[in-house]
Every structure is written in C-alpha cells, then in structure tokens.
# Entry
Amino acid sequence: MSVFAELIGHYNYFITIFLMMAGLYIVIARGNMIKKLVGLSLFQTSVYLLYVTPGKIAGGTVPIIDPAYSIYSNPLPHVLILTAIVVGIATLALGLALVVRIHEAYGTIEEDEIFARDGEI
Amino acid sequence: MTAIAPHLPVLQVLVPMFAAVFTSFMRRGNSAWLMAVAASWLSLAISLALLAQVLQSAAPVSYVLGGWAVPFGIEYRVDRLNGFVLLIVNLVGSMIIPFAGTSVRKEIDGNQQAWFYTMYLLCLTGLLGISVSGDAFNVFVFLEVSSLSTYVLIAMGRHRRALLASYQYLIIGTIGASFYVIGIGLLYLATGSLNLADIASRIGPGMTEYSRPILAALAFLSVGICLKLALFPLHVWLPNAYAYAPSAAAAFLAGTATKVAVYLLIRIYFSIYGVAFGIDVLPVYMVVLLLSLAAMLIASFSAIFEANAKRMLAYSSVAQIGYITLGIALANVSGLTGGLVHMFNHAMIKTTLFMALGAVFYRIGSVQVADMAGIGRRMPVTMAAFTVAGLGLIGIPGTAGFISKWYLVIGAIERGYWPVVALVVASSLLAVIYVGRVVESAYFREPSKTVRDATDPPALMLVPIAVLAALSVYFGLDTRLSAGLARGAAEMLLGGMR
# Structure
C-alpha cells in the first residue's frame, strides 16, 4: 500500500492526533484560565475519538445475534466513552467553577497577572 | 457474617459511597462528621476482614459485579498487594476522621462542613475503588472520582491560593488521567480486554505484531500515573496542593492519594507488563530508577529551603515517593518489599506529621517554621509526636522509616547498585536537616508571641496524632504485619513474572 493510501486509510487517527496535540498545546501555551480549560476539553474529546473510531468495523452491523450477519461493530468503546464524557463534563464544570472563584478572589483569570499579585506560588 | 463475607470487595466501595450520598443531604457539619466516622471505621473493618480472607486462601478473592463472567463483566479482585493497600488507605482514613471533626470546625465555614465530609467520603470511595477494581476502565472512573473530590477538598482551603493550587492540580490531574485512558485504550485495541489479569495473559510474546501499540501504551500509562503519583519532575502540583488544602484534607491526601497511584503503577508494571514480557526487556525501570534518585535528592533540597512547614512536608513527600518508586525500579524481592513497606510506613509517618501541623495551625493559625519558635514547650504532646514521626522520616533505627530503607538498601546491594545505596543515605541526611529545622525551632528557641497561649489541642485531635506516632515506632520494632504483608505481596508479584 502506498504512503498516500495509508494516510487516507487512517485519516480519522490523524485527526485525533492533531486534535490531541492542539489541545495539549493550548493547555501549555495559554495563560488565560478559560482558554486552558478549552484546550483541556479538546484534549479529552480527542481521546473519545481515539476510542470510538476503532469500534466501527467497515461493513459491520449493530451487534445483534442473527445468523444472517457475521460482522458486528464493537459497542463497548462507545459505552466506555459515554462514561468518559460524563467524567469530562464534571471536570470541565468543576474547572469553570474554580475559575469563577479565582476571578472573585483575584479579579483576573490571567495566570501571569495572578502570579504578579501573589508571587509565584 | 457468612452471608456478607463473599460481598466484602464490593462493600468496600459501597459503604463510603452511600455514606457520601447521605452526608450530601445533611446540613449540619456534626451529623455529617458522625456519618463519616462510622463509614471510615466500618470500611477499616471490611478491609481487615478482606485481608484475612486473602491471607487464608492462596488464590485472590474475586467478585464479579452483576454476575457477568470474568473477562466480560467488571471484576473486583483482591490479592495480597491490594489487600495491603486497602489496609493503608483505611487505616489513614480512620485516624484522620476523628481529627478532622475539630480541625474542620475551625477551618471551614459552617455551611460547607457537610460538603467537606461528602468530598472526603467520595475521595475515599475513589481511592478504595482504584485499589479493589480489576477492570482497567473501572479504575479510570474511580481515579476521576477521587481526583474530582480532591480538587474540591483542596479548594476549600482558606487562602485564595488554595483555588489556584486546585486549578493547577485539576489541569495536570486531568492530563494524567487522559494519558491513562489513552494507554488503556491502546491496550484494549491490541488485546480486546479490559480485565487487568486478562490483558496480562493476552499480551504475551505471541502478540509481537502489536508490540508497538503495547509499548506506546506502557509509555502513556507510565506518564499518566506518574503525574498522579507526583514522581519527580511531574510533581509541581503537589507542594501547593498540600500546603493550601485544609489541614485534615492535606493529611488525608498525603497519606493515601499518592500511595494508591503508586499501587496502580505497580499493578501495571508487574501484574501486566512483568507477567507478559518479563522485567528486563522493558527500558522503563532504569528511567524510574533515575527519576526516583533525582526526587530523593532534589526534592529534599527544596524542602530544606522552605519556610512554610506544610510545604516543607509536601516536598519531603515528593522525596519519599522517590523511595517507593526506587523499590519498584529495583524489582527484586528485597527492593520491592522496601518500596511496599515504605508505602505503609510513610503513610503512618506523613499523616502524623501533617496532623501535628494541623494541630499547630488550630492553635496558632500559622505553620511557618519561624512562627513555631518555642512551641515544643507549649504543645508538648503534639510536638513530641511530630519529632517521633520526624525521626521515622529520617530513618533512625527503631522507627518504621528505618525498616523500609533497610530493605531498599539490601535490594540495591543485591543488584550491585552501590551509588544508589550512597544516595539513599545522603537523602536521609538531608531529611535530618529539614526535620531538624522544625525541631530546633520548636524546642530551642524562646517562645514567640504567637505561641505564648498555645496548648495541646483537644483530645479528639491529640489521640489520633499520638496513636499514629506510636504506631510508627511500633512498626519499626515489630515488622511482622507491615513488612510481612509487603514481602508476601512482593513475592507474589515477582513470582508471577516470567
């Protein structure tokens, strides 16, 4: 198989990795706490894609036991990610709540301004 | 009794979880506290009963949730290793919670006290769940249950920096947990299983065609879990989190949270990769060895220059985690026994130290070393307990810390790593300096204005501190329980490997 076909064949993995790196980069590079959470959320979501993608089998049906079908898509990754999405929402909500409290306490959500106010902690 | 005996593994998680549900409906801090005390002690009883079951039978105690057969359903699986970890977590929890009653009343607003206990119980649920579960994804869920409640516990600290510490930990902790999920996902893709024992039997040499994702999974799992257990240099979140969390929460987290993450690392390294590939094939052990040594030295140096005693102990925790991971990296029976028994001993010692500082904070409202001048004469029992536990941290013979360092040194000698032996001793000498600074300030200085009216705290705070300090000496003299269990677990782990 040529390199090009290899790339196209796995395009969803490349999208996943791109999103993962983009999210991680935002978390590291941005000083704004909301933006950091956006990056974190992007990073987490890319992990969901990493799980969901291989669950789909080309030509597979829903997983029902029937003599007419022999290839099924795997439902387990989807179920796992349903749980992970709930966890992700809880994390994001808690993070945003913390940012609100930080804004009340410091009057800013820029990390460098906070460090300037309190000293590097 | 016989009717509930087979259900103990799941009760271990359910008891604190349901207690958390009840306390979340309570408005009064005191009733929530009583609930938390009952749940913690019941949980300790369950873990003792479980440990007795495990030691009686040769095979691990297995519990299948919902009756689904093993590789498909979620299995709770208790063997010598996690029976030991459950005991550590519950012992610390049951000692912290009487102490927490008084401490929390002072440090946390009335309408938030019940929430504190809810979060404490959820954190306990998560930590016990990680320890007891044999399903990789279930472990992730419990990891996040404990992490999310930990973020809240830290944010309850009085100083506004507690919010910042909590936020920083949230970012780093979530990245760590996501790395863990990626690792588990890669393993699942390669093996089609989420049961830890089942994964181990499926990734053997027969699966060489998937060796790359399996090794990538090892890298992701290592980094993710090491973020959680604060292995140097991934420890930046820990000092602030411990320093600004409420005293009771800091003591609880210092004793349990990182230990459970270490347990998870041991489980992945030895029960999955060790069983599948053998230990010498994988390059991670040398990496962990070097990082452990760096942690022992650099974090100890940071502790020496820290003016805030709580932050000093937090840096010391990073150094002590280095000892535990050193035991993992040595990967022989003596070294691993040393690492495991240090989990136990360090939990006793560090919890005592943090609770003693909590008592100091309760009386004088500060934990700066300078403010603690002369406090040894005003709070004699508290500071005596601090000193005894501090000696344990250094590793004086006759204290628990000596036992773990002894095993580690033996393990290093068996491997022929003489420089490691020297560095363990050097790191202990650094501990002499930072523990000595507090002791010197407490006993050999004129009492400052802040400590003039201080006295030992109420009995509910004092008794757990004294009991744990006494235990840290007891386990230095009689090692049948602590080192015996650790040795059993180490032999089981290393015996199961190729």
Remarks:
- The mean pLDDT of chain A is 87.
- Chain A has five helices and no strands.
- The helical segments of chain A are 3-9, 11-29, 33-55, 76-106, 111-118.
- Chain A touches chain B at residues 24, 27, 33, 36, 40, 43-44, 47, 50-51, 54, 77, 80, 83-84, 87, 90-91, 94-95, 98-99, 101-102, 105-106, 114, 118, 121 (CB under 8 Å).
